[in-house]
Structure formats: structure tokens, C-alpha cells
Amino acid sequence: MNIAVIGLGIIGGSFCKAIKKYTDNFVIGINRTQATAEKALEAGAIDKIGTPESLGECDIIILALYPQAAVDFIEKYGNYIKSGAIVTDSSGIKRAICPSLSALSKKYGFVFIGSHPMAGKETNGFDVSEADLYKNASYIITPCGTPDDKVEILANLARKIGFGTVKITTPEEHDRMIAFTSQLPHVLACSYVMSPCCPNHKGFSAGSYRDVSRVANINSQLWSELFLENREPLITELDILIDNITKIKDTIKAEDRETLAELLEQGHKVKTALGE
Predict the structure, then answer these.
(1) How far is CA 265 from the centre of its chain?
(2) Fewer CB atoms < 10 Å away: N or C end of the chain?
(3) 63 phi and psi angles, rounded to 5 deg
(4) Does residue 61 contact residue 37 with C-beta atoms inside 8 Å?
(5) Are the C-beta atoms of residues 226 and 249 closer than 8 Å to each other?
(6) Predicted structure pTM score
(7) Residue 102: which of 59, 165, 146, 58 has the closest Cα?
(8) Cβ-Cβ contacts under 8 Å for 36 (sequence gap 6 or more)
(9) For the segment 216-230, what is each residue's pLDDT rounded down to a tens digit?
(10) pLDDT tens digits, 132-182
(11) Is the pLDDT of residue 122 over 80?
């Protein structure tokens, strides 16, 4: 197949490298900054630097862009996409963009399937992309009414390039779960390192500090968009977290060791039951 990847940052660049390493597909790269596209070509991550007109050659188009930028790109260039081609995004929210992209698919005659690769790093850009970024990661697909045979084409590509799990779900369930598994930890990490103690942590910190603070090294423009577009599920999870923290705080303040131990044991039992 001919596969176009739009946006050659860490996610798009890693898609290109993985597709080249693990499949025989022809990869076309399109990027706003020409120098990055040339770097990808020189590195062998893509076979050709594309233009909007190149979309007409493609069987699959992967939008490795910020959520609204993905919608904007298709609104602008959707007329170049051939009928029946599969278009997928890679963003961390689905309810805010899937209806728009599904509507555009009907307008232009392509097939839209939402997707979200559950992988990344604390750094960004093509230079930190890698062919094995998706090794054993989860690939979430929101079919949005697309026929099963088209969904299986995308799922099969994901498996070939290293994803260990393909999860099929709805945009609503995706956003609800991602609020808990991804967005809430980023809020927690940023809040954590805002403590005045943080600049002086060296010599006092080990694994606990690293584990909690790791994702505070955040792309603020991207994550602020994700948080706001998914605000209802995220606020629900924040309310639960704040309530649980407040309960622990109140027992410490009251010097109520018995209740405090019970609360901590609740967390311990949840992790033990999950086998983690």
C-alpha cells in the first residue's frame, strides 16, 4: 500500500520508521517544515516527500497532528483524497474530532477510523522518533461506524509495526478512560512538581519521585488542548482524586492512624487485585 503520514514529529516519525522497518509499504511524508521532511527522507524513514496532491495516491493516511489541526488539514485538502482510502488520526481525544472527521469522510468519499497509539516520550520531534516506539504498546481504534473489513486493515497494520494490543471502543469510552489513565497522571505530575520543595529534590529523591514527576515534562500546548476538549471526563476524575486526597489529608490532620491505615490499604488492595 501507499501510506501517507502527515506530521513528522515523534508520533508520525515513529509511524514512518516502523512501517519502513516492518512492512513493504511505500511511505509518503508530509510536514509543515520542509527541513524535517528532508531529514526523514535522508534517514530512510520515508520514500517520498509528499504534497497535498500526493494524497490521491494513498490507500491509508495517518494524521499525526494536534486534534484540531487534523480536522483543519482534512477540511483544506480532503478533495485530494481518493475514494475509499482510509484516513485515521492519532490524537488523545476522540469525541471532539471524530464527528467532524466522519462528516468530512462522507463529504469527500474516504473512510475515517479514529485511532490512538498509546506510546510516546517526554521529548518531541522527529529526532527522538524510533521504529520500535510502538513495540508491545496498545493501539486504540474507534471505528465510528466504519465496516469491519476496513477496521481490520488498520488493525493489521498496527500489529505488523509492533503494537501488542488492539483495543476497539467508542469515542465516549475512549475519552472517559483516557481521562483516568493518561490525562489525570499528567495533571498530577504537573501539580506535584509545582511544590517549592521540587528544585531541591536532588539527594532526597529516588524511584517514587521519578515515577510521579516523569510526565510533568509536558508539551503544554498539546496537553492544554487535550484537557480542555475532554474537560467533562477529566473534571470527573479530578473530583474523585481530590476527594480521595482530602480524605487522607483529613485523617493525617486528625492523627487518626486507624482510618488512615484503612484508606491506604484500600489502594494496596486495588493494586494487588490487578496483579500489578
Answers:
(1) 32
(2) C
(3) -95, 100
(4) no
(5) no
(6) 0.92
(7) 146
(8) 8, 125, 126
(9) 999 999 999 999 999
(10) 999 999 999 999 999 999 999 999 999 999 999 999 999 999 999 999 999
(11) no
pLDDT digits (tens, 9 = 90+) for 175-212: 999 999 999 999 999 999 999 999 999 999 999 999 99
Question: Could you give the CA distance from residue 47 to residue 26 in angstroms, rounded to a whole number?
Answer: 6
Please return the burial class of 248, using the count of CB atoms within 10 Å of its CB with bins 0-12, 13-18 and 19+.
Answer: middle
Cβ neighbours, 10 Å, residue 53? 9
In the structure grid, which three cell numbers stand for residue 164, read together? Answer: 501488542
Q: Say what the pLDDT of residue 248 is.
A: 98
pLDDT at residue 121 in the model: 83
Q: What does DSSP say about strands 111-118 and 138-142: parallel, antiparallel, or unpaired?
A: antiparallel
Tell me if 141 sits within 8 A of 151, measured CB to CB: yes
| C-beta neighbour count of 221 within 10 angstroms | 9
